């Protein structure tokens, strides 16, 4: 096993199912403006696109006429106040993180979620005390798919990008990992829509179920 290896993760839709709380925040804003709520299924497809993606879908054709920055802030304010009402690990993820800890494999999080919100959320899950790095969407001027957050994370955990596995559920995750010569794993249990052409994203590994992640990591480490 390569002791110089590390595993880095996206957060929303990869490690944590945050869609219930993100959807609730979007629906709060939509309700204030007499718009129909999003279903949980819609929220799961859209949460990867952040506050703007959720609101754009909710307002539909009316979105371009809205005070978009103001509505985004309303959503984020509500989300911050209710950040972990329905959020939890996807099945098998906690066990995968425990395996990494047991085998002293460094791991961490690179997300486009604002760093402050990410830290606030992760306090609810003691497993993240073992995380070696957290890079948020506003930690640097650039965020995924730009390679800068990936390179910063590698510097912090002192592992070369080519010895890292990056696990994410969005096209920008795979682009960011590929752009830094990481091995990329597409989390097919995450926030994907029917329109996503995942075969075009050029991920090195596809993982169908979150319960399979631990074994998939073990197999990757064995191939290094």
Describe what you observe in this structure.
By secondary structure, the protein is of the alpha/beta class. The protein is 42% helix and 12% strand. The protein is built from nine helices and eight strands. It has a six-stranded parallel beta sheet, sandwiched between helices. The radius of gyration is 17 Å and the shape is globular. It starts with 5 loop residues before the first strand and ends with a helix. The mean pLDDT is 96.
List the helices and strands and how they pair.
Blueprint: E1 6-9, E2 16-17, H1 19-32, H2 40-46, H3 50-59, H4 68-81, E3 88-89, H5 93-102, E4 107-110, H6 115-122, E5 134-135, H7 148-157, E6 164-168, H8 171-179, E7 183-187, E8 205-207, H9 213-223
Parallel strand pairs: 1-4, 1-6, 4-5, 6-7, 7-8
Antiparallel strand pairs: 2-3
What can be said about this structure in brief?
This protein is an alpha/beta fold and 224 residues long. The protein is 42% helix and 12% strand.
Note the main attributes of this structure.
single chain; 224 residues; alpha/beta; six-stranded parallel sheet; 8 strands; 42% helix
Percent of residues in helical segments? 40-55%
Quaternary status: single chain
Q: Give the strand content.
A: 5-15%
Report the count of strand segments: 8
Terminal Cα span: 8 Å
Shape verdict: globular
Largest sheet: 6 strands, parallel
Going by helix content, strand content and strand pairing, the class is alpha/beta
Mean pLDDT: 96
Q: Any idea what the radius of gyration is?
A: 17 Å
Q: Could you name the ranges where pLDDT drops below 50 across 5 or more consecutive residues?
A: none
SSE pattern, N- to C-terminal? EEHHHHEHEHEHEHEEH
Strand adjacency order, main sheet: 5-4-1-6-7-8
- Given the structure, what is the number of helices? 9
